[in-house]
Design brief:
Number of helices: 15
Order of helices and strands: HHHHHEEHHHHHHHHHH
Radius of gyration: 19 Å
Largest sheet: 2 strands, antiparallel
Shape: globular
Distance between the termini: 26 Å
Length: 290
Amino acid sequence: MTGTTGTADASGDPGLFGPGSVTWQAHGDPMMWIAGVRALWLQALHPRAVRGVLQNSDFREDAWGRLLRTADFVGTTTYGDTTAAERAGARVRRIHRLLGATDPDTGERYGVDEPALLRWVHCAEVGSYLHVLRRSGYPLTDAAADRYLAEQRTGARLVGLDPAGVPASRAGLSAYFEAVRPELAAGPEAREIDDFLRRPPVHPLLTPARRLLWTRVANLAYGSLPPYAHELYGRPAPEPEAVTRRLRLTGTALRAVPARLRWQLPPKHIVRAMRRLGPGARPTPCKLGA
């Protein structure tokens, strides 16, 4: 099965999205890494969802591995062939079926694959991608943004959601976040993730590098959160115009690095996709149109 927006040379499988999709272009942008960190902060505000993470893994010991696995999943499902993408989704669904969490207040035991929890994780993730890309200057029109969210229903299906129950437009996503806000809180688990993201443990010799590099990334990701998230975490919201300015400067700097160099970093999903489909499959915002 291939996405309806997919186009490719006859010699290759375009996968679930294909080079004609907004997803294909947008997911090749380097600001996706900052967006991914923002998503972690936002996802942690759902108490039931974040318990599913912390009760099934040692987040502090494997936080980077988790982030990289998420990036690999996004890369595989975006740029891999159909078989690889479907296999990645099946693996995630299989793992989720085996995991559960316990509410410490009520003793209730629940599965991490509850649709409401999967929907929150999905919406916080794709919403973060869209927000950071657009705010940092990536040229996504309103129409293209809506196309992106509609395309991401395929990603929702891969993790076990009914695509019909997932927001497919900016208006739908905004309404979803408004509806779920009463369920959000910065409980002990969210505080643990907040503390980690602000000050991840590193070897003492790497502390200066953490201060120089990671702190800037983390501040950008945190600063781009919605005002209600800053309120829940209990720290003053940064001045929005200043955050937007820093996001645009960072986006400009990262995009100035030649793509052929950026894409050589492992796991090279885009490089492999271009080998499979030809040079015309190169992700570029020029293909987005109106």
